[in-house]
């Protein structure tokens, strides 16, 4: 800080700003050119100045805890693969005054409109090329120019609906665009998460800091997408490449937040020129698709023929006018770096006005004079592929900065420019502004860019009042990416007027409407069903293992007949008795997590965290659990955690159709497991004590004791665990539950006829209702198991195919 | 009517699946083009069994295209074209093409991305990736000679014809051009892809033509290679004056009245006669049968 500024700043700021020197030639978000803090930062600075280091740490921890609870993560890629890492939030938000923001927004809206018109021309008459405003080769050689889209008029009337812009502040303090994100821009959901976390860090400041709220932006866009539907019964869906994508968390988050279906391409097909989703009741039409998948992968028939992520016929659905897509296929071409060289002139031509918001100065080296200029100014140039859609500071081996290559990839930049000028652009390496990051208790300036989002609503483009800031790890502006250790921050647009709190739910006007959920996609049903089955299978395994290890201990002899008998049963079930925490059990937890991971949008965060915790806990215990008592204790811990998960799911999850599949999976698996272990442990040839194992694994020790004060015999065990309709662990109880759930699934067609699953269940139910304990022989258990398996097949065929 | 030939053409492409998928979608490009020098007199594309959905239209390059779907499992399906086509005899025209430098200047002046524009045929395309070896080959063929673009293209196609051995066992429909080029073996698709890569490598716009050859040669002439299936050759842009010429590098000849064009594109991926998305597992068998018979037509 300069002396003059220091005199004007309150004393408590001295400590917090000790490590914050102004940097000549670089603009700063916090400090004015004269070194004094900008007024918009004052409330935050004064709060930080009053706070102790421990107080600040506690605040940050609160934000981090929120992010962990929400389950937001990012994927760190390395040579060996990728791992999930904690979300790298920089807790200090970027502060921008509302008046300045309004100015920036006007530039954003103009640019969004310009890009719409450019796209309409590139996929329409092609006049920009024939009028000499854009070189033909930048279009014709561009892999993002999708020829099958040429000639398509979007049914919504627009190509673009949701776009983002990477903006930075140049040394003179003005904003400029580094890159346009039009393909399938990500970050808006993450911006919302950053907001929720940062609001917790500064929960005393945020409510009264006049920060513009984000909910209205999302509400308007949600309403717009719903408005684009062709009919009230049509659905809006978000298309995701799947859970292995970097931004899958955001896809699931936005889907849940806005109430849209989250689908993968394989769940959809095109029938009679219309896109539809395969639901538990057959195909249902989709008329609005928010695409989070790159265009060229969307249709293996007409676009990239090697794509396994696409839906055959997607282009056809677009062509037939039955589908509104956000954004229209082919929008990736607008991200081309070289386009930035021509947009200023195109703006004048298409809009009749200059760009309100300039973009990074760019020269296409396919033109002799531009190439010469770039060569003369190599020292301040980023040079990279002309048709790349990456952001300017996103350097790789094919980029040169300041006339030099990273890792000496090539000898001479000049030769490169001469040999392949048409393939290259030069972009001015502007110094980005810095914003404060809290590092080791003091504020430190770090380079920053902000992603700003614009959505098309009923009344035109609207800009999200906030953004997704990326902050460099060091002074190096090329290290902004998370993969390079960068962090992210919230952006607070601060008004000088009080701001009302807002949520996604609009303030109640109009009649109350109870919205019923739409039909469940077949894939989601399948995953929920199997989640129910795997968790139940795991619980059964844990009970068996506990029974086994308890007996190891009490006899002190490993090789008694009962122990050997249980061990044999465990082995046949894929649970090695030699391992106190068998791999087979860990696998069941992984399978459960795998299913839940595919339906994150339909699954509560608490439920997901409970499942993660369960699986992590089992893995942590695995290497150090000893056989016998110790293993039995570990199994008890897991049982309590399983009960916690079941409680969360079965008590708190709304009983939508999805829950019914989860519940059916659980009931079916429980019945199947019971028919197997009861056959083994009620067998007349089974060793002494087997019946007690059966009652224990059937979790009915107390019930049995109350019902039958005598010693257990086969009849009492069979009665309680097979035929008793009031015991929630009996096979009969599961069959009743399955029948009840199945009957409440939405049915279509069939003319009131029972489904195959319902018939099989009714038969089984009747059979169990009239049976006496003595009727249930080992052979009868086999038959019950077979019948239950056939119910599963029928359910799968009818609803999940 | 100018001098030419008339053919009755039959094309059948069939698929048999052991485990048919629940639904199928395909795009067919089987209907011969109508363009200067070629006319579809009569003919139609059909499918058996009857598809559940059908839509006929044109693709970006103005090739006739038929979309069909089967919304049910189909074990055996067949796509057919039957019709009559007239093709004008090759006209030996004056070579009006410029030299390489002249072509570059004309290209720079061709600021156009409409389907017919040569700009569409210069860059990498899905099945033809550039490689330095292709341009090196062109230089070794052309040496330092001062040739017109048409002469260069002909020399390159002739050289490929001389070096390539026609060998249906060496490659399949997915073999990259560079691999076929290194083996110097393959079929019409490979030789055409390699010719396209070599021509683009020296800045000459080149595209892919799929079509038919007459099945039986006129009396006294040898049967042409590739006549028992659909054929492929290349089209080369020789400047705005000369326009596009078509050369069959597999037979080292200009495409003439023995060649019936069905579709043009940047490479095979733009013109495949049947492009399907059969989500199926297990094995499947295909067959492909072509008859191109000249007919005597009374004028």
Descriptive notes:
The complex is a heterodimer of chains A (801) and B (299). By secondary structure, chain A is of the alpha+beta class. In chain A, 43% of the residues lie in helices and 15% in strands. Chain A folds into five domains: 3-86, no CATH class; 94-337 and 432-494, no CATH class; 361-428, no CATH class; 520-653, no CATH class; 655-801, no CATH class. In chain A, strands 3, 4, 5, 17, 18, 19, 20 and 21 form an eight-stranded mixed sheet that branches. In chain A, strands 6, 7, 8, 9, 10 and 11 form a six-stranded mixed sheet that branches. In chain A, a hairpin with a 2-residue loop joins strand 8 and strand 9. In chain A, helix 15 (522-555) packs antiparallel against helix 16 (561-572) and helix 15 (522-555) runs antiparallel to helix 19. The radius of gyration of chain A is 31 Å and the shape is globular. The model of chain A is unreliable at 1-7 (pLDDT under 50). By secondary structure, chain B is an alpha+beta fold. Chain B is 22% helix and 34% strand. Chain B is built from seven helices and 15 strands. In chain B, helix 4 links the parallel strand 7 and strand 8. The radius of gyration of chain B is 19 Å and the shape is globular.
Please state the overall shape of chain B, judged from the principal axes of the Cα atoms.
globular
Quickly give the CATH architecture of the largest domain in chain B: Roll
Strand order of the largest sheet of chain B: 12-11-10-9-13
Structural class assignment of chain B: alpha+beta
Pick out the low-confidence regions of chain B: none
Overall SS class of chain A: alpha+beta
Flag low-confidence runs of chain A.
1-7
Task: State the order of secondary-structure elements of chain B, H for helix, E for strand.
Answer: EEEEEEHHHEHEHEEHEEEHEE
E-strand count of chain B:
15
Q: How many DSSP helices of chain B? A: 7
Number of helical runs of chain A?
26
Largest interface: pair, residues per side: A-B, 30 and 29 residues
**If you average the pLDDT of chain A, what whole number results?**
89
């Amino acid at each position: 800080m300069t002396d003059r500024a220091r005199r004007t700043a309150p004393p408590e700021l001295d400590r917090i700003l000790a490590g914050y020197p102004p940097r000549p030639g670089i603009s700063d978000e916090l400090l004015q050119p004269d070194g004094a803090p900008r007024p918009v930062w004052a409330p935050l600075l004064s709060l930080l100045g009053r706070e102790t280091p421990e107080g600040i740490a506690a605040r940050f921890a609160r934000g981090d805890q929120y992010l962990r609870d929400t389950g937001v993560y990012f994927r760190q890629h390395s040579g060996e693969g990728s791992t999930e890492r904690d979300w790298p939030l920089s807790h200090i938000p970027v502060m921008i005054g509302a008046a300045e923001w309004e100015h920036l927004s006007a530039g954003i809206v103009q640019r969004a409109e310009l890009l719409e018109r450019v796209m309409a021309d590139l996929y329409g008459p092609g006049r920009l090329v024939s009028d000499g405003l854009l070189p033909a080769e930048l279009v014709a050689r561009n892999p993002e120019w999708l020829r099958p889209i040429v000639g398509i008029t979007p049914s919504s009337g627009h190509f673009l609906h949701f776009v983002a812009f990477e903006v930075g502040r140049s040394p003179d303090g003005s904003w400029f665009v580094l890159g346009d994100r039009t393909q399938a821009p990500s970050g808006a959901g993450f911006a919302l998460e950053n907001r929720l976390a940062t609001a917790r860090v500064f929960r005393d400041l945020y409510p009264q800091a006049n920060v513009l709220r984000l909910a209205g932006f999302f509400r308007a866009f949600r309403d717009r997408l719903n408005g684009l539907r062709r009919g009230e019964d049509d659905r809006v869906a978000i298309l995701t490449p799947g859970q292995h994508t970097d931004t899958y968390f955001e896809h699931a988050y936005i889907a849940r937040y806005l109430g849209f279906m989250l689908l993968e391409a394989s769940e959809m097909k095109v029938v009679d020129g219309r896109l539809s989703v395969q639901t538990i009741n057959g195909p249902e039409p989709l008329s609005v698709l928010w695409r989070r998948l790159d265009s060229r992968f969307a249709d293996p028939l007409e676009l990239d023929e090697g794509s396994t992520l696409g839906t055959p016929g997607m282009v056809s659905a677009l062509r037939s006018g039955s589908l509104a897509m956000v954004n229209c296929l082919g929008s990736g071409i607008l991200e081309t770096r070289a386009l930035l060289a021509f947009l200023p002139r195109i703006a004048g031509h298409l809009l009749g006005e200059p760009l309100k918001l300039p973009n990074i100065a760019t020269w296409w080296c396919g033109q002799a004079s531009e190439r010469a200029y770039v060569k003369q100014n190599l020292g301040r140039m980023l040079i990279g592929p002309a048709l790349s859609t990456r952001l300017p500071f996103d350097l790789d081996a094919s980029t040169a900065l300041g006339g030099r290559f990273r890792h000496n990839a090539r000898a001479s930049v000049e030769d490169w420019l001469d040999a392949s000028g048409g393939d290259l652009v030069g972009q001015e390496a502007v110094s980005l502004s810095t914003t404060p990051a809290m590092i080791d208790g003091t504020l430190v300036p770090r380079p920053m860019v902000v992603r700003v989002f614009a959505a098309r609503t009923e009344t035109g483009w609207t800009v999200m009042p906030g953004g997704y800031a990326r902050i460099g790890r060091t002074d190096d502006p090329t290290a902004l990416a998370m993969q390079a250790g960068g962090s992210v921050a919230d952006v607070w647009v601060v008004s000088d007027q009080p701001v009302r709190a807002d949520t996604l739910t609009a303030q109640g006007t109009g009649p109350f409407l109870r919205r019923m959920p739409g039909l469940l996609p077949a894939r989601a049903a399948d995953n929920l069903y199997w989640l129910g089955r795997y968790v139940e299978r795991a619980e059964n395994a844990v009970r068996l293992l506990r029974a086994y290890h308890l007996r190891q201990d009490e006899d002190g002899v490993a090789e008694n007949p009962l122990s050997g008998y249980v061990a044999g049963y465990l082995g046949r079930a894929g649970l090695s008795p030699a391992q106190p925490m068998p791999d087979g059990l860990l696998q069941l937890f992984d399978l459960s997590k795998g299913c839940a991971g595919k339906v994150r949008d339909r699954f509560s965060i608490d439920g997901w965290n409970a499942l993660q915790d369960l699986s992590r806990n089992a893995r942590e215990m695995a290497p150090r659990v000893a056989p016998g008592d110790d293993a039995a204790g570990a199994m008890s811990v897991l049982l309590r955690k399983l009960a916690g998960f079941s409680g969360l799911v079965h008590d708190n999850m709304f009983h939508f159709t999805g829950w019914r599949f989860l519940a059916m999976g659980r009931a079916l698996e429980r019945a199947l497991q019971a028919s197997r272990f009861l056959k083994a442990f009620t067998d007349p040839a089974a060793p002494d004590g087997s019946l007690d194992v059966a009652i224990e694994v059937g979790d009915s020790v107390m019930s049995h004791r109350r019902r039958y004060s005598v010693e257990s015999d086969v009849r009492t065990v069979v009665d309680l665990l097979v035929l008793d309709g009031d015991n929630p662990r009996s096979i009969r109880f599961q069959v009743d539950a399955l029948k009840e759930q199945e009957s409440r699934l939405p049915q279509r067609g069939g003319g009131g006829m029972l489904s195959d699953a319902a018939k099989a269940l009714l038969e089984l139910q009747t059979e169990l209702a009239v049976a006496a304990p003595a009727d249930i022989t080992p052979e009868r258990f086999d038959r019950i198991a077979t019948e239950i398996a056939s119910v599963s097949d029928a359910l799968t065929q009818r609803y999940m195919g | 009517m100018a001098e030419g030939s008339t053919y009755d053409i039959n094309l059948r492409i069939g698929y048999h699946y052991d485990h048919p998928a629940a639904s199928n979608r395909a795009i067919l490009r089987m209907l011969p083009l109508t363009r200067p020098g070629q006319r579809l007199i009569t003919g139609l594309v059909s499918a058996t069994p009857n598809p559940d959905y059908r839509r006929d239209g044109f693709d970006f390059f103005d090739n006739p295209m038929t979309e069909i779907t089967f919304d049910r499992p189909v074990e055996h399906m067949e796509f057919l074209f039957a019709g009559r086509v007239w093709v004008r005899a090759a006209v030996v025209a004056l070579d009006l093409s410029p030299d390489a430098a002249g072509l570059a200047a004309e290209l720079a002046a061709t600021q156009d991305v409409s389907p017919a524009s040569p700009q569409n045929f210069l860059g990498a395309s899905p099945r033809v990736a550039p490689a330095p070896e292709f341009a090196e080959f062109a230089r070794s063929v052309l040496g330092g000679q001062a040739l017109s673009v048409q002469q260069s293209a002909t020399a390159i196609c002739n050289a490929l014809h001389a070096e390539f051995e026609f060998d249906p066992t060496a490659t399949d429909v997915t073999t990259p051009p560079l691999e076929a080029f290194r083996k110097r073996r393959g079929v019409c698709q490979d030789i055409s892809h390699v010719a396209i890569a070599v021509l683009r490598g020296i800045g000459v716009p080149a595209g892919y033509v799929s079509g038919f050859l007459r099945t039986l040669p006129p009396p006294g002439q040898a049967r042409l290679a590739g006549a028992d299936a659909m054929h492929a050759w290349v089209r080369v842009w020789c400047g705005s004056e000369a326009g596009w010429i078509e050369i069959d590098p597999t037979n080292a000849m200009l495409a003439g009245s023995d060649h019936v064009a069905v579709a043009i594109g940047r490479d095979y991926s733009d013109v495949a006669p049947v492009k399907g998305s059969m989500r199926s597992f297990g094995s499947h068998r295909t067959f492909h049968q072509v008859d191109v018979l000249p007919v005597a037509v009374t004028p």
